Fold these 4 entries.
Entry 1:
Amino acid sequence: MEVKEKSKKRELIKTIAIIFLAVLLVLTFFSQTIMNYSLPEVSTQMVTSGTINAKIRGSGTIAANESYEVMLEQTREIRSVCVKVGDKVEVGDLLFVLGDVESEELKAAQEALERARISYQEQVLNNSKSYAEDNQRIKELREDLQKAIAERDANYVTDEEVSFAKGDLAAMEANKRSTDFTVTELEALQTENDEYKEAQEEVTALKSTVDSLTKEIEGYESQLSDLGGSEADYNALNTARQNLNEAQAKWNNDFDANSTAYDNLIKEIINQYPGSGASSAKNITAAQFNQQSSYIDRYFAGLTEETEGPDQKEWNRVYDLLAADMSAIETAEKAYNQAAASFSQAESSATNNRDAIQRKMNDARANLSAAQSNLRAAQQRLDSASSANTQLKEQINTWKAVQREQEAAIGELKTKLEELETKQKAYKDAAATVDAKQRELESSMTGDGIDKQLDNLALQTLNMEIEKQQELVDKYKKDSVDAEIHAQVSGVISAINVSAGKKNDPSQALATIDVVDRGYIIKIPVTNDQAKQVKVGDTAEVTNYYWGNDITATLESIAADPSNAGQGKLLVFRITGDIDSGTNISLSIGQRSANFDSIVPKSAIREDANGKFVLVVTSKSTPLGNRYTATRADVQVLAEDDTSAAVSGLSSNDYVITTSSKPLDAGSQVRMVENP
């Protein structure tokens, strides 16, 4: 009994172990399968060898081959900036208007010079007092010197005042030039208003056509009157014709004025009576009008107070008006036909000619009616265009008023400048007189006495101080410039580094002028190996410039790259065509073909902060199958074309990842689309 129980226990343990192992195997299999389907799916391509006809690609910023920097070596106030970036300038064009003519250093030196001169003059006058009582000549010279000093001081005008006056005048003249340009542009717009000109020409032509047709009709009427027939019959015919024309004209005018309402009425009739043959044509015949009138009458007869709204009342009014017009046409037409028959009976020999003339006259009337309608439409277009032209005229008148104000201001500023310059000249003349009188007075006071020698020694000391300060002033003035800065070269303004109302920095250029006549260049950095594949004179393709005419890039030189010494070169291209400095473009230049051991698709190459790399698939065998891992391999691109790249750092049997269903990192497990 115990043996059987032990046997049953062993069987149970064995069964449990088998079940456990089976469950473990199933779970292992499904976990492996689930993990495989959760991995990124990748496509790979084997590294190959072959030939690449590579291209060097690069981008850079267009720069002028030669630029001119407008420098100002002293600190000055910028009163006005007369140009903007992108402006074309010629030699002599006004660029900037400066404020105060004196730098701080020059002002200080001038003040020190003036103080030295005053001290000198005071010393001369003081020295002369002791001689004035004994020497009448010295007394007279002293009085003359005092008068000359008073005359000089009365006309004292600083260079700064003259500079401000010149700056104000130059700024106003610059504003006047801008206003003149605006007026010229507006007048050109007024002259070039194509819509107004075309409408005006059309109106003139149609008026001429209307006048011509009117005269033609009058001529036909005159011919008809000369063909014969009784005067009474002719008058009756003419009256009937006029009545018919007036009735037809009234129909035309009423139809034109109410065409929209009549159109809507006809649409309603057609909706209710599809077979009515209703039409809203302007040239409908009396018979057609009468045919559709029965349907219109039926429509209005069927209206009730509930269904007759404002539209129906308007339609009824228009219909009654046009029905009355058509009835008048019928009556006039019958009267005209009767008169024509009577007149025809009265004349026998002129019948054929009369009919021909009548047809021509009818055609002329139809043409006249069409021309008059076209004339009304053209007049409306002319009135609309004239409104825009009127706005231009108002703007022109406004700017011309500004012109007149600026001209008056320029006249006043010129007068003020002339007055200041006159006073400045008088000041300089008086200062020269003061110097002359000083020297004459000094000469008169010269003597052998000890007092005189001491006085002369004091004057010499002061005179040396004056000479020293004068040399300093002359130095600063030599380095100074006038109130206006003009262009020294022709070109295009590429940079402006100052603004009106502020002072400049002497170490920084006021503006930069690109000398466009010298052309433009662009510099592309490349490796030493790439530089060996091209030669001077090669032409590059511009791949991303679409805003101007065709431009060309020609390799002008191959220079060392200072930012990558020993490892790289700079390809310098000369750029020609419609392009501006500062534009960023990309270039592509072909190299000579070469054989390479490792070539991969360009889609396989990736790049991060550490450089360029590819992800290589590595495999590892496991009891449950192969495991594939994306492994990073750093590479250097040796050459490339539009689809492939030659690289270093790979073996010929490596497989690189080209596409992935999910973002990948180095070390990630992947699932292959198809095994390598």
Entry 2:
Amino acid sequence: MNRIFDEHFLRRSCCLDGTWRFVTDKEGVGEERGYTAALPDNARSIIIPTVIGRDKDLLTYEGVCWFQRRFSTRGGTLRFCFGAVMTEAKVWLDGSYLGEHYGGFCEFSLIAENIEAGEHTLTVRVDNSSDLDSIPHAKVDWYHHGGIIRSVYLEELEGVCVLRCHADYKLNDALTEAEVSFKLKLYSATDARTSLTVTLGDKTVISKSINVEKGVSEIETERVTIEDIALWDIDAPNLYTLSVKTDTDDLTDRIGFRYIEVKNAKIYLNNREIELHGANRHEDHPDWGFAVPAQISRKDVEIFRDMGANAVRGSHYPQSRAFVDLLDENGLMFWSEIPIWGCGFTAEDLARPLVLSRGLEMLREMREVYYNHPSIVIWGIHNEIESASENGLAMTKLYYEEMKKNGGNRLISYASRMPFTDICFEYCDVISINYYYGWYEATMRAWDNFVIKFDARRKELGFGNKPVIMSEFGAAAIYGHHAFEALKWSEEYQAELITHCIEVFHASPMICGMFIWQFCDMLTAKEVGLSRARHYNNKGILNEYRKPKSAYFAVKERYNKWK
């Protein structure tokens, strides 16, 4: 589902993308009016996946809308897989409630049993409205579209089915062999016994019979040793096909073996010191919104490689599986985070029970869905919250401990906008800083003193053993706007500022990574309260259609030189 390879060969599945019926419901009265079974006569056609803001008369729509389509099936046990729905989804099958999911950007699935063969109706109520408990908050620095933004699949489940497989491994000191176990999430409509076969590449590593209880269950296999492994690395992104089969079902995924760690205030990948060179990427396009086609994602990866980057930060939410698959294939490291963009939350908001629990569930969901991707080397637990507050400290500690305990071999970080007042640096493996000298305050030359001043604070706090990533910095430029002098909003000023930043950061022993804000211009929300020409955040080193600005070539020259 939503991958660049087939996940199933035995399981029968079909894509439900294409034409659905659609209607808005600003008053939220659709349930009482029977929309769960049939939409009203004024419903129109819409093509899924989509964001509703692409329609001319719905550019600023926020609230409830309904999607519905007919499909045919052989019946039995059906699983409905949604790549992502913005932001809250409730689902009905033939008018009967099936389930719900909160939080956009991550895939989820719902199972229906004992379904008769023939035609049926799937109805989805989608709501992208916001309140004090919303994640993301109503105030974000991007345009928060509503809609079904990634593909929808129907799967027919038979016997014992494999819903998920996590490969947990431990490498030896020489990184030449791995002890691997597999955590499986299984489904069966009845208590059953089945054969289980797990292969890595062309090698069978598990072959046994198991008992499976009715419903959804989880098992962990014994550890097996894989010798002479080919590591996943930025220069050699070796991947292994992981295949799990039962008597009636199968699941295919890919894994890569690699080791990321922090030691001596540096970041090491596969026992080699590495500096992360990248940019922040919103999964957004002026014609598609969040529903970015795989072809656009592939082009973005090609651009990252062309400019010499070795890393991408997914701002500020989990990005499509297809995009992360492409990062796996191309040896680009990835920072994946949940959509807590903290500038909208007050310190008091961070203690709201629903905010805390929703964020925790989003982290767990991101971890479950993206666990096997070797490109993900950083889990991001939040961005720019009130990290100088006690409530911010409590949230950070809770989230850090959750992901550190169960997140696999990844570094844990968060992006702080409060480098000199932040009290949460204990709860991260890498200190990450968002700051904009030369744009919102001071001049670009203030960066020279910043690295000295922050290094002193880092050591004073007792965190001299933690490396630093500059997770956001930059300046806006209007594509095509040039000036003889380096004036703000010109391509020349942006190029000069970013060049100065990355050279200062590269020269600092404290800094082990940099992510330019941002990869490309993107539509933003009017509620942000910042000056945004064209209603866009124009800090991209490419414009929204991926056309390069002068800064792109300046970055390309240096990133390729530092490879």
Entry 3:
Amino acid sequence: MKKENRRNILWRYALIVVAIMLITIRIVYLLVDNTVISAHHWNKLAEKELSRTDTVEPLRGEILAADGSVLATNMILYTPSLDLRHPKFNEDSYRACVPALADSLALHFPRHSAKEWTKYLLSPLKRPDSLRSRDFAIVRDISYFDTELIKTFPFPRRKAKAPRKGSIIGLKINSRPVRVRPYGAMARRSIGAVGVTESIKRIHGKYGLEKALDSLLYGKPGITKRVPLTSAIVRWNDVPPVNGYSVRTTIDIKMQDIVENELNKMLEFCDADWGTAVLLEVATGDIKAIANLELNPGKGERYIESLNRAVLGFEPGSVVKALSMLIALEDGIVTNTNEVIPLGHEWHYYGKKPIKDSHYNASLTVNEILEQSSNIGTAKIITRRFGPKPSNFRERVRQIGFLEPMNSGIAGEAVPMFPKLKDDDLGRQMLSRESYGYCTEISPLYTASLYNAIANDGVYVRPRLVKGLVGNGTDTIFPVTNIRDRICSVQNARTLRKMLSAVVWGKHGTARHFLQSPLVRIIGKTGTANINRQGIGYTHGVNRLAFCGIFPEEKPKYTCMVLISYPKRNAMGAASNSGMVVRKVAEALYSRGMLDYDDSFTKGDRNNTPYPTLHAAADPGRNDRVQNSLALGPKKVVMASPAKTPDGSVPSVLGLGLRDAIKVLETKGYEVSIIGMGCVTGQVPAPGARARHGDKIYLTLTE
């Protein structure tokens, strides 16, 4: 029996020895094969791996506002997660920590309650161990600060010597770069967005500035390769990436906010399909604000930032009459602005459908044609010169630079569409319609640029959204450039401004009832165009309403173009609709001191002194009492007291605080309307003017 057991044991040992020898032989064979026999093959694979290069993405440049505020920038978002199959992960320890962990998450990330967090944290434990996630996200897309905060939460940890805390078992931190806009939806369409392109699978601009300036913002990618060192194989930057430039735009954040808010209010008031607005600075062509809003097809806000229609072409309507009149004045088609043009009910000119005006006039002078927006009068003037050869009209428009790409910096910019007319009856018919805004397509940006040239005494400055570049050792401001140094004489530009002034301030002006602001003098032109809908055609009451305004008239500083499509209630006219947006924008800029009005009584040491500045007061002793009660010291600056005005006239309240100003004016029997905050820096009617008891006095306050 013993011999038999011994024999069995020896056989087992023999089998084990043989197995070990076979394994050893296999190992020796593979070692020899890898290092000698197949060395060439493995060296070739190693060389291939070490020679493989990868692309290093550059850091995308920022998009900045005119004052340096960040409109678009890069951010790294982090997602802390747990490896639930980590060798040291213990389910019991994890379950014990969950209640305290859920409380911490509910406190710092209140998107869920503690009960909901508990349910979420325990949910992956329902699966078998082998199927549990190796990357269970705790909280997604959080900041670096929040990630560091999560590391202090009561997770199961490795042991460590006190007072140090051991590391969290199975914790991983995943990160991803994102492009963010700190101001949210403000000017979203103009700023643009980025995404992975289909062709090269890299992140580039998709629309807006992000696309138009992608070559500058993106930079140049680098090249990295693997390099064998003594202890490890590491990545080595063979060609370092060149980060993109930061682009400084012309956008003014305050103005952008004003324009978007006023456009949004009007769209909601009139229940329109969409609206767009552009605000240009006259002297430089800088686009200070650009807004595009349309009905939201989903839930949430009713109107959202949308397609950039400011650079897309539409039949412009009567706002294009300023272009026709500019050519008429500059080419001598009209030499006497008091010339009487016969009109009548309608005018048949090479077409079955006659040209009509919205209201009857037997005749108008040239000065009155824009004031009353006469289609017949505009067409008669233009066809005088270009009727025999309609093709020359497009050539004349091209000569002033109106058909050239502006290269404003906005992707998708459309050049105006003026069809090439034949010198036949159809061409003459289309010419007459082009003169007052049909049979052509012009974007709001191009319309604004034309009115900007009229405001700028004929200098046709190029609208721009990009002001300069910052980065890579460069800080460049681009110079202001002109499309044409001059498209009309100074005298003709001023004549045109007088005609545009009559539209608002004239006895029969189409905008006289709505745009005569007591605070800032606005001039401009209304425009209404029927919408030609596919398969339906032109329909009465389905309109696009436009107004292009210049303000202040005395010294033009800004041009504002607003276009609103298909309003369905309330404000159904161009002046009461788009025009009111321009008026509200102008008044808001005035109230914030952005129109450079001279408030001489506030100048001096008011903003340049280390001492306290006190408003003027109706009670001379009040400032002394404030100084003593607040221990302001012996030195202070008191703004100049209002000048005295004759009895029976509007008293001056310039320099007073709001409470004193209201007291003075209401004591005299006037009503008070207030814009802004701070002390009174402007009043309408002016001090000393005659006004009746009960009249309204408009006060502008500035901090």
Entry 4:
Amino acid sequence: MTKKISQTILSVGLAVVILSTALFCAALTGHFTERVFRELEAEAELAAQGVALGGIRYLEDLDAANRLTWIGSDGTVLYDSQANEDAMENHLAREEVQEALATGHGRSSRLSATLATRTLYVAVALEDGTLLRLASEQSSVADLLLSLIPSMAAILLVMAALAVFLAHRLSRNLIRPILSLDLEHPENCDTYEELTPLLRRLHSQQETISAQIAELKRQQNEFTAITENMSEGFLLMDSHTNLLSCNSSALRLLGAEIANSGESVFHLSRAEPFLHVVEEALAGRHSEALLEREGRYYQLLANPVMRDGRMAGAVLAILDVTERENREALRREFSANVSHELKTPLTSISGFAELMKSGMVPQETVPEFAGDIYREAQRLITLVEDIIHLSQLDEGAVPMDREEIDLHVLARDVLDRLAPAAEKGRVQLRLDGEKAVVTGVRHVVDEMVFNLADNAVKYNRPGGSVTITTGMEKGKPWFSVADTGIGIPADSRERVFERFYRVDKSHSKDVGGTGLGLSIVKHAAAYLGASLELRSEVGEGTTVTARWN
């Protein structure tokens, strides 16, 4: 801007100098011409007086610097100081002669095309009717200017240098208030009055921009707060797979350490399901896929983002569905196990009934076959009841008749009921601890203690023992069931509470049961607000402790 202002000022200055010089030369030429005319007129008056006194002899004796011509009233040249008058043409038609004859004085100027000089003529009328004319040669304006070129050039150089200096200095002075403007606070600037509307406009725009930036920051902070507190992963990409935004959950779920904006999302994962959903979304189609990574399952949901009918990018959501998939796997396993457990007694009942129907069973063995059918039917009824009860615990549909229950008293009752089975297996039963009162549904608590103690008796060894201990710890009730039985291998300890899971399937038929006991214990504990802790060593025994939270 400074350079442009300097150039403008310099151009204007030089134009003014050149124009001024031209006007000065024109004025000087005019002044010089007028002065010569007056001098010629004065000299002509003196010469006219001399001619009037001395006639032609005066003219012949006169040594004049300018050309002198004596012209008759008819235009005939009577005398010329520089040429032969006999050879000269009639001068009656000359401009200065015509003017002198009319007014007594005449003047004119004529340019010589060959010599590039101008001649000034002054004519004076004498009393006898003749005219006396003086002529003076004058250089042309161009000739005059050429003679002044060296001086004018020097002057122009000096003036140009001065103009450059002044233009630069003036432009800097002009631009300094503009450069010192505080654009962050234009309303406080003290500068040219002409800039006031611009500064007001800047101030208004700054307020608008500041408000918009504040609103964008607020929205960005809200968006970040929402996405960063999501357990689900979130990815936003453009149509070239370049990452625009993501939250930390997305990086965690995909196992990526860092995400750089502008990089392809394929840097985060090269898994086939991930590549597939991204490509499908960028092709304009909704896509879903299941990604398995390090034993966990993630559902990928991708949707295209359109803008003005054109593909702008895609958004990808990542959900951890490990629990859902595990539940689905358990459901399938449970369905298979239920089918198997139901099929076994039904097959036995059907087989016994078919034998009896065909008459292949001797009459004396019918009661024995009927007893087998009854036992299998009871086993089937018990299995169905356990499944129903387990379903009720899952759905929280257990009757809510809560009451205060003393775990110590309830444990004594459980041991009394298990005494025949313990005596048959030569297992000693013991009760330790103190009074511990809980608030809950009695039959659920009873079932929980009974199943743990029943398993402890069933999977014990002859001469072993089962001990139920009750107590209070920091105001919270607890009980434990410890046995000296066969123990549980390390790889099965996390699965013993699963439905139908048996550590020793070959021994399960001998001990009986439905395989749902410990699963019912787990769901009952969750229903009652208690936590379970299992400790076991193979060949030494198992201890299960339930603590109320």
